Amino acid sequence: MKTTRRVLITGASIAGPTLAYWLSRQGMDVTVVERAPGFRDGGQTIDICGAGRVVAERMGIVDAIRANSPHEESIKLVGQSGTNLNLSTPGSGRLAKLAFETAVKGLLRVKPK
Asked: Which of 37, 39, 19, 11 is nearest to 104 (CA)?
């Protein structure tokens, strides 16, 4: 008789649900618990790049992440004296990375396929 492994994950921010997704795909019975009563609408934005981007692609959530992402058109960095330090436009430098940045609150609402 085959026994299904049961896993309890504490924390429903980014890593908890991601781990739950992968473990459940391996046939495990996964429960995620979180002490917060619901989604937190505040928080930092995060860059999804490197290994994180590969994981998002494998989970099939890239389009959903982009749909929940802020859509900056440019970034202007200004020094203390008011001098322009840098201006990025879509597809260049840092802004190319920001095209795949998302707010944590948006990412938590993304559901894998």
From this structure: 39
Q: Are residues 48 and 95 in the same domain?
A: yes
Same domain membership, residue 51 and residue 27: no
Q: Is 82 left (phi over 0), alpha (psi -120 to 50) or beta?
A: left
The answer to whether 77 and 84 are in contact (CB under 8 A) is: yes
Both 49 and 26 in one domain: the answer is: no
Print pLDDT tens along the chain (113 aa): 778 999 999 998 888 989 999 999 999 999 999 998 877 666 666 777 788 888 989 999 888 887 777 666 666 677 777 777 665 555 444 434 433 445 555 555 666 76
Find the domain containing 108 and state its range: 43-113
pTM over 0.70: no
**34, 55: one domain:** no
